[in-house]
Write a structure and sequence with these properties.
Layout (H helix, E strand, L loop, with lengths): L2 H5 L1 E6 L4 E6 L1 H7 L2 H12 L13 E4 L13 E6 L6 E6 L3 H7 L4 E5 L6 E6 L2 E6 L9 H11 L5 E6 L2 H4 L7 E3 L3 E3 L4 H7 L2 E8 L8 H17 L1 H8 L6 H7 L20 H7 L1 E5 L9 E9 L7 E8 L1 H7 L8 H14 L3 H16 L18 H13 L3 H6 L3 H8 L7 E2 L2 E2 L7 H9 L10 H11 L5 H21 L11 H11 L5 H21 L12 H4 L9 H14 L1
Parallel strand pairs: 1-6, 7-12
Antiparallel strand pairs: 1-2, 3-4, 3-6, 4-5, 7-8, 9-10, 9-12, 10-11, 13-14, 14-15, 16-17
Length: about 575
């Protein structure tokens, strides 16, 4: 038996009938490898056109790839669904242990259909799925508590993963996330809300199988080469030492760090919230995803004194990365690190996507400043850039939704702006809130055009920074060509499923060698075909659900605030989008 034999099994779970079945799907994985390639094919099969994202017909699909459990940094799970946040493709990736757990349970994919009549959680292992009552967990205030209870109930052995939602998912906030292993997330596009609509509180996955290889000598040689490249490359060393927050100071220096709802590209508090400052003053420990030697996950230790007791503290351990720092730091004008971390913590407790939550709050703050909303709308909260306390309370209200305003904000910045005004400074791209870069036109085109409107679709910000450094002018044609080329290759990596931090490690030659050991005799041409076809399928699914490149709203703010790559206008962005659409 080769490891790809186990990969070709798909577990189908029916929440409505509380039944499951396992099917052999060699056709699926022979064509797609796994990951995003398999995920979009399953989504085409399972999700009917026009499906209600919060209805029982919207599936939840998890997929892994042929290198998971075999090689370092192949440690991501892909989730596919119809997004309640954008109304089209929902795709989110998470690290932690979920990928290895699914693989060692003997599956290449898990498909969850229907909706439960009452709160439930699933336990998935090599024997299938068990349905457990989650009534006592439903309504639990903290996502941390849910994780703790499930660890006690379902200790498991081998590789065990726990995915769960917080109150935001139960309340079907459109950008609710799914938390896995406490510090990792299926963050973007509202998978948590889909869980909540199905009354699915959590999934526990236990895997104890082994993955045999046909040629142990070839496997060892390939493994050692990948391990060496991963642990000795300067890029991976950077991620281990400071993690992605190393980007804060360089972006601020060039004017590319979104600040106060992108009213500026530089933040006077950048040094205080930088990766260097957090490591020096708050770093508690580093942790790694399963089968990863890099350990890029940095945890801050924050001591909060109890009221009226100077000697006792509550210590919070919080995962921090560049995007949470941007979303709850510079975007909200917060240089107060304890305050910023407490905003992050409340977002985690409630189970929200941190990027969408931070950008939505930044829009709300500016809308309040401009008089588009009133203190009555905010339930009396004086939202103000630089003041953490009202933001902490506002996060709770996004979930509790005591007013019409918070009910609107629970659907994202774009929806709230259509109700209250301020679309020109609502920083969403295809309906998804922006990441932490304002480097020039390429990054914004990349988010608008990218399959999941994410900075992880393509690195447009790299194009901007390279052009700025060389003093070269970008063209719409050049931007579109570069973005499409890179996004196609990223479909290959996310079909494997390889962490995109390791994209410099898994070049074509290394990827083909690793696949051969895993039992896939693919060629470079096969990989190119897979990348192009997977991207086309994603775009086709989006268009089936109403997506239109020509109808994308371009936030006026991105052309008004100076960017490192120089000035650009809406016409440039529209031209690049048209070129992108033709090339896909």
């Amino acid at each position: 038996m080769l490891p790809n034999d186990l990969l070709k099994r798909v577990l189908y779970v029916d929440l409505t009938r509380r039944k499951f079945e396992v099917r052999e799907r060699p056709d699926l994985f022979d064509e797609s490898l796994g990951g995003t390639g398999a995920g979009i094919r399953l989504l085409e099969e399972e999700c009917p056109a026009g499906a209600d994202p919060l209805g029982p017909e919207n599936p939840i699909i998890f997929t892994v790839g042929p290198l998971v459990g075999l090689y370092p940094l192949a440690s991501k799970t892909v989730a596919m669904f119809k997004s309640p946040h954008t109304g089209n493709l929902g795709e989110s990736h998470a690290g932690g242990r979920s990928a290895v757990s699914i693989r060692l349970a003997g599956y290449g994919a898990v498909v969850i259909r229907g909706a439960s009549a009452g709160p439930v959680y699933l336990v998935i292992d090599e024997h299938g799925a068990q349905f457990r009552d989650a009534s006592a967990l439903w309504g639990t205030r903290s996502s941390y508590t849910t994780g703790s209870v499930l660890r006690t109930r379902e200790g498991g052995s081998g590789a065990r993963s726990i995915m769960r939602i917080g109150r935001a998912g139960e309340q079907q906030v459109s950008y609710a996330c799914v938390i896995t292993e406490t510090y990792r997330h299926f963050g973007r596009l509202g998978l948590g809300a889909v869980f909540g609509s199905k009354q699915l509180k959590a999934i526990v996955v236990e895997g104890q199988r082994s993955l045999p290889v046909a040629d142990r000598k070839a496997f060892r040689a390939t493994y050692d080469a990948i391990f060496k490249a991963a642990t000795q490359s300067p890029l991976m060393k950077k991620y281990h030492e400071l993690g992605t927050p190393i980007n804060v100071i360089p972006l601020d220096a060039i004017g590319g760090l979104p600040t106060r709802n992108l009213q500026a590209g530089r933040f006077e508090g950048a040094e205080a919230i930088s990766g260097e400052a957090l490591a020096a003053n708050y770093l508690g420990r580093r942790v790694a995803c399963a089968h990863c030697p890099v350990a890029c996950v940095h945890l801050a230790a924050l001591r909060i004194p109890y009221p009226n007791d100077p000697y006792f503290y509550k210590t919070l351990m919080l995962g921090y990365d560049h995007e949470p720092i941007f979303a709850t730091g510079s975007m909200l004008g917060l240089a107060d690190v304890p305050g910023m971390l407490q905003v992050m913590d409340e977002i985690e407790v409630q189970g929200l996507d941190v990027m969408s939550a931070g950008v939505a709050l930044a829009w709300a703050t500016e809308a309040l400043e401009r008089g588009l909303i009133t203190p009555a709308d905010t339930d009396g909260l004086p939202l103000a850039f630089g003041d953490a306390a009202p933001y902490i309370e506002a996060v709770k209200r996004i979930v509790a939704q005591p007013t019409d305003f918070y009910r609107a904000l629970a659907r994202g910045a774009e929806h709230a702006a259509t109700v209250y005004g301020g679309l020109d400074f609502a920083l969403t791209f295809g309906g998804n809130e922006m990441p932490g870069y304002h480097t020039g036109p390429a990054c914004h085109v990349g988010w608008l055009a990218g399959a999941r409107h994410s900075h992880l679709d393509n690195a447009g910000y790299s194009l901007d920074q390279a052009a700025a450094k060389k003093g070269q002018a970008l063209t719409p044609e050049g931007v579109a060509e570069s973005l499409v080329t890179e996004e196609r290759w990223r479909q290959v990596l996310t079909s494997l499923v390889v962490c995109l931090f390791a994209r410099g490690v898994y070049d074509r030659e290394t990827t083909l060698s690793a696949l051969a050991v895993a039992g896939f005799n693919w060629t470079a041409a096969d990989l190119d075909r897979l990348g192009a076809e997977t991207l086309q399928r994603k775009v086709a699914f989006k268009q089936r659900e109403g997506f239109d490149f020509g109808a994308l709203r371009i936030p006026a703010r991105i052309t008004e605030t100076p960017a490192p790559a120089g000035p650009f206008d809406e016409a440039f962005v529209r031209a690049a989008l048209a070129e992108y659409a033709q090339r896909v």
